[in-house]
Specification:
By secondary structure, the protein is of the alpha+beta class. Helix content is 50%, strand content 20%.
Amino acid sequence: MQAKARLRYLMMSPRKIRRVVELIKGKSVEDALTILRFTNKAAAGPLSKTIQSATANALAIEGTSHLKVEDLSIASINVDEGPQAKRIRFRAMGRVYRYKKRFTHLTVVVEGEPTEEVKTKRTLGKKKAVTEKKPAAKATPKKTTKKKPAAKKTTTRKTTTKKTTTKKTTAKKTTAKKTDETKKTTAKKTAAKNKKTTTAKPKDKPAAKKPAKKKEKE
């Protein structure tokens, strides 16, 4: 069983990458990753990422139950040349130096054979789970006692009746207070009127007009 991963247009010359690839060829995936972790080269980072993606593809195809990372090894690593970008560098006396930026394409192939021992363990585990579930289904269901909701309703009604009676008593008290206050205010007004009438002086009667004397005829 094989799985591959490809990295395209890597901005690095293929000559630099091939030096690091020679350290990894024909080794297991775990050993290759540990070697790349401690190599002080720029090509170590992208190489480790492509190897990890190839292992993930292999595990996705076969499944983690049938295949493990320990069983995988590197089958081949191809370093192909990509396109070249032309660039210039300015120099003295108005001159220009030309150089090329090289790109590479990486392809990593990983291979490994799935083990059969894991399959047998899985099947045995499933059979045990099925046998354990059967007696659980035969167990007698427990009796459930239903609660009586009627008691709660009666209590709520009682509380509502109590509230209504309290409201009525408060209304009666307020009306009695209002009647007493109105009576007091009317009594005060009448007493004040009586006092005014007693204290007021009688008005002087207007003077009677004397009858006009008739002029005597000469």
